[in-house]
Amino acid sequence: MDKGSTARLSLESTRRLASGHTIPLLGFGVYQARGDECRAGVREALRVGYRHVDSAQAYKNEHHVGAALAASGVARADVFLTTKFLPGHSVPAEDDVYAQLLRSLPRLNRSEGRMGDGGGYVDLLLVHAPRPGEAARRVHWAACARAQSEGWARDIGVSNFGVRHLRALPAPTPAVNQIELHPWCQQREIVKYCEERGIAVQAYCPLARADPRRLGDPVLVDVAAKHGKAPTQVLLRWSLQKGYIPLPKSVTPARIKANTELYDFELDAGDMDRLDALDEGAAGACSWNPVDAP
Question: Which stretches make up the NADP-dependent oxidoreductase domain (predicted)?
């Protein structure tokens, strides 16, 4: 994406990853969405135009995402699916990690609501966290690289990795680092490191968990009023204009739709500067944010 051409952004905008594959710039998050709520949310998201869904093994809803996609009428090839492997607290065997990664395939790749037969693929496979240490990270990454070499994980990356974790990671370079990002938690050192190395930056919690204190911040409210937009829409537009890939989560149809209405306005340099100035560093995080883990 050309960050100097943000006015041309649309719901169909994508970014080319180092592999040559493309990833839609706006994703739909399903953290803490369960059962019928998850299935209905994903189907509504696909109905209004999302083509990127972000799940994780730890969310325990991959099978609901797969069922929603199978029932949606949208072709699997037209949807970018991400999942994540959550490491344990000891150094595992590579084969054990690989076996755990494989469990996502039948959950996400379904046909007419039935579980898959083990075939299919994931567009992006992430290591969910850098725990418990460098030796384990090397094993986790080797298992992911094996999945990519076999073709069923099209791209691989990481989540919640700090600069030190990224620097020590063996080849291949991650396609993506998914971290908490919003004006109050900008993680600038990590972002800079990733941008310099062609690692796409995904923003989770881009709406700061809809914390009323954050959404009521006078700066954000003022910028939103200026553009006739909701504070949540300004936060997502800020993320897009920074070059990030935001992953808003909602199970409310009106909000799912509103989170796509980002392309009829543009934040000017002054707006961006005001929002950038809200950064509180690590203190601004609103979730589990282990970027400084050992």
Answer: 37-280
